Structure to design on (471 residues):
């Protein structure tokens, strides 16, 4: 049995028998325990986007260099929007059929409650770091569960997932898009990407990060706007598209793919890859925000899941389904998205997608690298380890992704994503009661007419020695 076939078999077993049930089960449990927070507090989510940064360590203003709720929201959306939205959605439809889109929506609606819990916990257990905050699952596992081994395990898994295997996905997608649009060799594109990546992670991040922070949101807005134009031009097809999605989702009308099981599995897998709800990545960003109450960032991150899947992923899905190219065997991943867009707007479609995916995926390479770096620093401060990681993350894995097959890189990502998600779900199930208590406190303060609820660590006396902030 070849390596790719072996990984595929393991992945199918993990996702079919463990992860799908765990993700949906946890999402439903958190939805019930939070009394449907992701639906009842949508208005509050949007209101919080205008919040300014508040120093939760000292309780005074924002003299230090903290980021606001909106900035944390923008960063998390920037890391979510990208390969998963353009190539991942196409892969889900090509392999699992149109019904996979329905299950992507389900995992987003249910998973947003999970995103709320994990990000609220990241805020609660965050730590001071130079002139900002730092935190995430490794920190709330160590501080909340007092299980150093489990925290280290998570740090290792997220480094393998984001810092290594995810970067191969980004490179593979960029190379595929460039080859489809311009005919460029994946090998040479991979070498250039690796050179740029190594240059950035070894010292040039500030300038290029500033440029990316402008270009990526602009490109994201441009992509959504183009998708809306395509949908409006074909508005008469939308009822048919929705009908195909729903019928295929329950196996009533299998238009493509390998049956109902494949439809659900690929919808959930690609939905999780895109919105990251429950995976444990977004809490690393959520912990950096300076807010007056942990619940605020939990609500913001729940909104991020909606934005990613229900808006951006749906745009890609509608373009592909309107084009009718989803059942062409030769098309998969980014090539399917490019071909679908070409059929609607002409030859500029593949070029636009190639430029968009370069900006999205290359910024994700840098973001993924820093997820890994932050978690390696949680384990060790050894400079040699960090240097080796930088070379592997931005160099070796980028070139590997450029040369490897589409199926192999996605299988490797699914493999690590399964174990990473399982580790995080165990932690947040055990710690979820703190998020529920925080939400009750937040709602009580709002009912008393307090516009900006606040939290003090003395409210959790059993955790006071474990909470470094919230003085």
């Amino acid at each position: 049995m070849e390596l790719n076939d072996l990984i595929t078999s393991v992945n199918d077993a993990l996702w079919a028998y463990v992860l799908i049930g765990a993700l949906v089960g946890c999402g439903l449990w958190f939805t019930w325990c939070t009394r449907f927070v992701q639906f009842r507090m949508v208005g509050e989510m949007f209101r919080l986007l205008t919040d300014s940064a508040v120093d939760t360590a000292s309780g005074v203003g924002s003299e230090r260099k903290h980021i606001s709720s909106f900035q944390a929201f923008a960063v998390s959306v920037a890391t979510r929007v990208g390969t998963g939205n353009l190539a991942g959605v196409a892969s889900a439809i090509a392999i699992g059929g149109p019904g996979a889109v329905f299950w992507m929506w389900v995992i987003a609606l249910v998973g947003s409650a999970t995103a709320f819990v994990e990000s609220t916990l990241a805020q609660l257990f965050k730590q001071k770091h130079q002139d900002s905050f730092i935190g995430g699952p490794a920190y709330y596992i160590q501080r909340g569960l007092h299980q150093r081994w489990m925290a280290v395990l998570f740090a290792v898994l997220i480094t393998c997932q984001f810092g290594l295997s995810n970067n191969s996905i980004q490179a593979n997608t960029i190379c595929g898009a460039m080859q489809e649009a311009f005919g460029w060799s994946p090998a040479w594109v991979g070498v250039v990407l690796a050179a740029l990546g190594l240059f950035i992670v070894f010292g040039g991040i500030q300038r290029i990060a500033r440029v990316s922070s402008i270009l990526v949101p602009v490109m994201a807005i441009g992509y959504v706007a183009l998708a809306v134009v395509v949908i409006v031009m074909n508005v008469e097809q939308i009822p048919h598209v929705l009908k195909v999605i729903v019928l295929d989702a329950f196996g009533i009308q299998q238009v493509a793919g390998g049956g109902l099981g494949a439809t659900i599995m690929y919808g959930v897998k690609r939905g999780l890859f895109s919105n990251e709800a429950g995976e444990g990545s977004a809490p690393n960003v959520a912990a950096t925000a300076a807010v007056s109450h942990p619940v605020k960032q939990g609500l913001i991150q729940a909104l991020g899941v909606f934005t990613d899947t229900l808006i951006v992923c749906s745009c890609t899905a509608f373009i592909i389904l309107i084009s009718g190219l989803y059942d062409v065997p030769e098309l998969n991943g980014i090539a399917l998205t490019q071909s679908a867009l070409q059929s609607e707007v002409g030859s500029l479609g593949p070029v636009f997608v190639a430029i968009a995916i370069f900006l999205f995926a290359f910024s994700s390479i840098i973001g993924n690298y820093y997820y890994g770096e932050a978690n390696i620093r949680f384990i060790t401060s050894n400079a040699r380890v960090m240097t080796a990681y930088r070379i592997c993350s931005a160099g070796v894995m980028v070139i590997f992704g450029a040369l490897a097959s589409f199926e192999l890189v996605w299988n490797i990502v699914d493999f690590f994503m399964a174990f990473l998600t399982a580790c995080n779900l165990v932690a947040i199930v055990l710690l979820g009661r703190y998020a529920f208590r925080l939400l009750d406190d937040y709602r009580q303060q709002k009912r008393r007419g307090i516009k900006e609820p606040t939290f003090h660590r003395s409210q959790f006396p059993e955790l006071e020695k474990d909470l470094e902030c919230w003085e």
Summary: The chain has 17 helices and two strands. The first strand starts at residue 127 and ends at 129. Residues 186-233 form the longest helix (48 residues).
